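Cross-posted from the bioinformatics board.
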Amino acid sequence: MLQVAQKTDDYLSRFAQLEARLAGDGATFLLPIRKKAIERFAQLGFPTTRQEDWRFTNVAPIARTAFGAATGDGEAVEAQQLATSALMQADWPRLVFVNGYVAPQLSSVGKLPGGARLESLAAVAHADPEALQQHLAGYADYQDHPFTALNTAFMEDGAYVHIPKGVYLEQPIHLVFVSTADAEPVVSHPRNLIVAETGSQATIIESYLGLGDGVYFTNAVTEIVVGENAVIDHYKVGREAQQAYHIGTTQIYQDRSSNASSHAVTIGGALVRNDINTVLDGEGAQCTLNGLYLVSGRQHVDNHLRVEHAKPHCDSREFFKGVLDGHGKAVFTGRIIVRKDAQKTDAKQTNMNLLLSDHAQVDTKPQLEIFANDVKCTHGATIGQIDENAMFYLRSRGLSEPASRSLMVYAFASEAIDRIQPQLLRAQLRQTLFDWLPEGHRLQDAR
Amino acid sequence: MLEIRNLHASVEGHEILKGVNLTVNAGELHSIMGPNGSGKSTLAQVLAGRDTYKVTQGEVLYEGRNLLEMDPDERARAGVFMAFQYPVEIPGVNTAYFLRAALNSIRKHRGLEELDAADFLDWVKDKMKLVDMDERLLNRSINEGFSGGEKKRGEILQMAVLEPKLAIMDETDSGLDIDALKIVARGVNTLRSADRAIIVITHYQRVLDYIVPDFVHVLIDGRIVRSGGKELALELEEKGYAGVEQKNAATEPITS
């Protein structure tokens, strides 16, 4: 415990330096928020497995590591290296961040239609802080979530996306977060704010990627505000490096008749926690939370979902699938809260897991809290192994054991991948899955 | 091609096959008939390499090789094919992909060039006509949502595509209406050839009106109790398995 307390102090003393450095910079409205957040973090400390929300995920490795502050080092990343490994697409407007800071030479925004904005949060905070004031830190809860508190205290850069009323962005916006840690462990706190005004529509892709072999910690928060009748498709593709820690919150706020989807695909990282929260705060809003996690070695992946139905006639759909190999461990928590007024709520939750090894482990837990009396809520979780009948069938036709196994895993996972809308991203993720599978290259044309 | 000698097999400690002897040569079509629980399906599964069945005694030689030592996929590549009594539904696995992957693994083993998607499509289209199957089924998941008849015809289609040397039909006729049965029989008859052996395992004599066997064997309680020509099937039809078994008590079983 003593050791953990020391590392908490590291963050507190570093906050003092940050405070001094940021004094007088544009976004003065943020200073009191940062202060409240760091004070809250000091009170909360790092979570322990004694807390219900963290029961199956032990963050002690993060708490006891002395992470230095990451510095943006865009020069260290070659555009070519990025293009091949970051699922990038030339014609997608993109902002690339290296170790949490924008790298303009790797980014390519172009001119977005309808006055839409895609800018570095740091730049906006400096030059146009009023743009951020209404929404930034207004949704992601830093009172009860220590990592969100840390992010709120330390946030500097990330993406600011603003889609004005009625504007439709045809091309997905791509936010790429690259970490290059090699020697010393470093932490970055990317912070994104995405605001979709009334009747607008856009697709946002967040990619997290590790290019170094070292230990690093990405502590990310993305707030997404979906205005009345707006449509947002959000994707978070986590391909952090083998030794990386990733704690990330996707916080969605939905107004009347809005439609939001968020897909979380996790492939890399030593310890990954995705908090995905949405508040359906207007009648007739719909949300879809989908996910896929491929876990092997000694990886630990925790998807923690919280859907709050605050108003009537809202629909929510959750569909998460996981494949676990080796000593991999996954956690799924699906909390659905239906407030007293949220009559005619229709909520559905599905979590399916495929275990490929006797040592892999899954903890899956639905949590329904229903305060309304006219609602439809269903949930289902499965943990299974590869169907031996199917394996025998495939093998009896000449497919080798590994090829049959890969085909079965592919069939299981593709149900999640098929829900991904941008065709290009879907194809890239399918390729990522092939790369992950033994003899996966033979499946290239399995469609 | 196939020599089964004194084959004993058990599942979960229960002995099902109690000394099966059978020789099958290229060009021959054998029918193995027997009542429920006689061990027919066990025999088929053991030959295909299902590991839930434990061989406790005896041996099986396929083209002179010890078949029992080969993995199921190795057997398939060597030319052994079993049409499943209950074809397995595999959601998410595209039928066309599966068939091509299977064919290519076998072609590769035979030293033939692998087929690409377009060549494969040409290859499979003809075979689909043989079993009266809609090409659209190729784009569906394996057996998923197929009717019982479609599944059985699908097995014949796979056999036609993979061109095995030894095909074992495990109750492929069970549960088929007469139209589907005729289609299955046409498929099997078309695939009869001088260098291929076929074993038709069945519960019912009816299928043998359409597929005329060279030899008929009666399997009862894990042993072949009678062997004969196609007329044995008619005798069975008349007297039932009990009648045939009684007769067996007095005579030595014949193996072909």
